[in-house]
Amino acid sequence: MEIRHLRCFVAVAENLHFGRAARQLHMSQPPLSKRIAALEDELGTPLFNRSKRSVALTAAGRALLPKALAALEAFDAAAAAVRSASIRSSRIRIAFPSDTSPEVLLDLVKALGPKDSEVNIVEATTAEQHELLRGGELDVGVLRHPYETQGLWSSPPLRQTLGVVLPSSHPLARRKELELRELQTNILIMFPRLIAPGLYDELLETCRAHGYKPKRIMYGIRMAAGLMVAESAITFRPAHFIVPGPVGQTPDLTWRPLVGEPLHWRTSVVCRRNDPERRTRAAAQVIFEALQRHDHWSPDTNESRAKLRRKRLEASEIAQGR
Fold first, then answer.
1. C-alpha to C-alpha distance for 77 and 292, rounded to whole angstroms
2. What SS3 string covers 161-225?
3. Of 236, 310, 266, nearest to 146 (Cα)?
4. Helix, strand, coil: what percent of the chain each, to 5?
5. Which of 6, 171, 278, 313 is the most buried (most CB within 10 A)?
6. 155 Cβ contact list (under 8 Å, min separation 6)
7. How far apart are CA 12 and CA 61, in angstroms?
8. Residue 125: HSE in the Cβ half-sphere, 13 Å Cα cutoff
9. Domains (ranges, CATH) in the chain?
């Protein structure tokens, strides 16, 4: 018994007319009649009572119909799942934060150039990417530290040191460098916590530890420059946030470094730990290199030194038999 025989049987059973069933199946009537006859021979019983004017199901036909429908449904579902898996295997889904440069995306598209693969690129926050990665709906993301790493593979962290951005007319703008505690009376412009909860909490905790507890926090990303000028507020950004140039390129703002460089952003390229696709890790490597080449990210040497210290400590404990 073949699935095509069951498909023919169901078409005739639903139409109770061989001609209409043949048209529905896009075939001529004689081959359809032969398939029904072959099915009846295999089962050893008639499935239809035929006359010149009508076609009716026999008791055996009525018993077979629900089973045949279930078999066809299961077969079609299995075939759809295989097709879907095939499509997914040729597709790679990648997300970036909103501040990623076009040059990074261009490097990625050039590197993943096979015509038989589809690259889906979306913009998403760290929180959104983390949820999508854990749910298997994203292949590669670029996440800001800290985040829950269980089940995920992460590249070595990259780092950007943050300084203070403030209006050029601000009294502190005349200083060459600043300490966090000197910002105590200033309004702070921050990104909304839901974008990267771990980073948000880490930045404010570091500020408090160094004597700066903002009297007020305002939220803005694209409007941050305007809010700073309007409210005489401050924010924390890497030095490249200030672009020298004509009007329209943050001419009313100034960047100043922080003593001791206490604040920073760290980012990693992330994918699922059990992802078997080589293209996934290849894409992650391309992005990792492009972020350093185009977007001012540098290897986190502090993290590298910390890992080295941990390895040396572990080796020492092993040598001492602990």
1. 45
2. ECEEEEECCCHHHHCCCECHHHHCCCCEEECCHHHCHHHHHHHHHHHHHCCCCCCCEEECCCCHH
3. 266
4. 50, 20, 30
5. 6
6. 268, 269, 270, 284, 285, 288
7. 11
8. 13
9. 3-88 (1.10.10.10), 93-158+266-317 (3.40.190.10), 163-261 (3.40.190.10)
Confidence at residue 292, expressed as pLDDT on a 0 to 100 scale: 97
pLDDT in tens, 277-298: 788 999 999 999 999 999 999 9
The alpha carbon of 6 is separated from its chain's Cα centroid by a whole number of angstroms, namely: 42
Q: How confident is residue 84, by pLDDT bands cut at 50, 70 and 90?
A: low
Q: What is the CA radius of gyration of the chain?
A: 32
Q: How far apart are CA 34 and CA 22, in angstroms?
A: 12
Burial label for 161, CB within 10 Å (0-12, 13-18, 19+), is middle
b/e string for 54-84 if b means 16 or more Cβ within 10 A? ebebeeebeebbeebeebeeeeeeeeeeeee
Rounded CA-CA distance 151/172 in Å is 45
**93-126 residue pLDDT tens:** 999 999 999 999 999 988 887 554 688 999 999 9
- Cα distance between residue 227 and residue 218, in whole Å: 8
pLDDT cut 70: percent of the chain above it: 86
Q: Please state, in angstroms and rounded to a whole number, the distance separating the CA atoms of residues 145 and 158.
A: 10
Mean pLDDT taken over the chain: 86
Nearest to 210 by CA among 162, 173, 258, 145: 258
What is the per-residue pLDDT across 171-192, written as a single tens digit (0 to 9) for each? Answer: 999 999 999 999 999 999 999 9
pLDDT exceeds cutoff 70 at 169: yes
Does the pTM surpass 0.90? The reply is no
Both tokens of 109, joined, read 């598209």
CB half-sphere exposure, 15, CA atoms < 13 A? 15
